Amino acid sequence: MARQLFFALGLLAILGLASAGKRVLVLLPNVNEAEKYSKFFGSLRDAGFDVTFKGVRDSSLKLKEYGTWLYDDLVLFAPKSEGFGGSVDQQTILDFVDSGHNVLLAVNTDVSEALRNLAAEFGVDVDDRGSKVFDHFNHATLDGQEDHTLIAAGDLVDAPVMVGGPYKEPVLFRGVASTIPGDSELATVVLGAPSTAYSFVKSGVQEPPTLMVGSAISLVTAVQARNNARMVVAGSLDMFTDKFFDALVTVNGASSHTANWAFTVTLARWAFQDRGVLVASNLRHHLLGSDEQPWGYRVNDDVEFLVDVVEVEGGVSKPYVADDIQLEFIMLNPYIRQPLQHDGKGTFSLRFKVPDVYGVFKYFVDYSHRGYSYIKLTHQVPVRPFKHNEYERFLTCAYPYYASAISVMLAFFGLGFFFLYNK
User: Fold this and answer.
1) Kindly report the CA angle at 398 between 397 and 402, in degrees rounded to 5?
2) DSSP 8-state class, residue 293
3) Can you tell me whether residue 122 is helix, strand or coil?
4) What is the largest CA-CA distance in the chain?
5) What is the CA 157 to chain-centroid distance, rounded?
6) Which string of b and e fits 303-337 if b means at least 16 CB within 10 Å?
7) Whole-prediction pTM value?
8) Among candidates 211, 198, 264, which has minimal Cα distance to 234?
9) Helix (H, G, I), strand (E, B) or coil at 384
10) Which CATH superfamily is domain 21-271 in?
11) By three-state DSSP, how is residue 135 classified?
12) How far apart (Å, rounded) are the C-alpha atoms in residues 151 and 139?
């Protein structure tokens, strides 16, 4: 009976993970434009997402009702919009992210100030309205027309869990550039511009040289907040269209299809926490030779720490395998910091000797690997000194003191004997 109950609870937990993050709200200038992205949203539906389309200015628009979020993920495909309908505004979207939900934002060269400000809140600086990314060396020819703003990009982040790949075909991009601060710890350039690209505003007025050139340009940026909420800011709306999915382009004389379909769908699934999600559970520790978890330890005890880590993809859990998860045993400062060993089945463990320092320690696991959700675990445990009856009868370190005491006694008796029996 207990085994059946455990199995039922585990199944419910897996189903809960599988159903989490499935309700997606898509905001468009008008719902009829959804046809331009039919393959993209069709792939999301095939992955199990419940996609709802609404106009960005819909008066009935709302993300939250009676304290409950109505959606798990938000897609913004309305770059020209200066505001939102209903009860949605920038602060509502930020609260949506703060509560652990995800946002996919795609803009273009006509990006509004409102969406530029929203992207800035995510830590991504989108270039000025009207600017475009140009490349006179790595551009593509589409439908027989050469377009220097149609970038054939291939500089993908080295994180297959985020973007899939590597791809032999180029990812087509036509839109606006972005940058991220150099000291940013949360943002990642998912798709970088070629070294020959630059951002520029074409106008009749002579413009000063742009400072946004080459590797400084981010075409697609991903941000994972500290609460594991995910945001993606794409500078091109066209890259999600059926036209770019089916395009046959010519780059430097070579013809090929594009990788836009695989790239955008994989990235969207990652953004909606359908990929790259780590779940840590069953933290435990015990003395070597015992299976019971004690209330605390004695200095110099030999202990073992264990934790289970699984990767969830598409609602299916599988053991996570990595060599870079570390355990720290901390009292103000780490006394022990060592990598955990894995058994290939999702269990990570470490055997170590408790330091010869007593006090309140804590186990601490702080794991962040690009493309995966963060793991932060803490568990407090006291460490006590030896009791008076737990020491050895004679301590090796005390031999000099034993010798000095014995020498004093011998000297006393020798002096007394000499005083009493010597005239």
Assistant:
1) 150
2) P
3) coil
4) 128
5) 14
6) bebbbbbbbbeebebeebeeeebbbbbbeeeebbe
7) 0.85
8) 264
9) strand
10) Class I glutamine amidotransferase (GATase) domain (3.40.50.880)
11) coil
12) 5
As a whole number of angstroms, the distance between CA 76 and CA 89 comes to 12
Cα–Cα distance between 189 and 232 in angstroms, integer? 10
Host H or E run for residue 120: helix 113-121
- Averaged over successive runs of 10 residues, the pLDDT of the chain (423 residues) comes to 40 42 90 94 95 94 93 95 92 96 95 94 92 90 85 92 90 94 88 91 57 85 95 96 91 88 96 95 94 92 96 93 95 94 94 95 95 95 88 80 92 89 79
Determine the length of the chain.
423
Which H or E element spans position 201? strand 198-201
Work out the end-to-end distance of the chain between its first and last CA atoms, rounded to an integer number of angstroms. 94
**What distance in Å separates the CA atoms of residue 161 and residue 156, rounded to the nearest whole number?**
12
> Following DSSP, what letter does each residue of 1-20 receive, concatenated?
-HHHHHHHHHHHHHHHHHHT
Of 97, 214, 79, 222, the C-alpha closest to 163 is 222
277-384 folds as Immunoglobulin-like (2.60.40)
Q: Are 193 and 214 in contact, with CB atoms under 8 Å apart?
A: yes
Residue 418 is encoded by which pair of tokens? Answer: 């000499």
Asked if residues 172 and 239 have their Cβ atoms less than 8 Å apart, the reply is yes
For residue 268, which phi and psi values (nearest 5 degrees)?
A: -65, -40
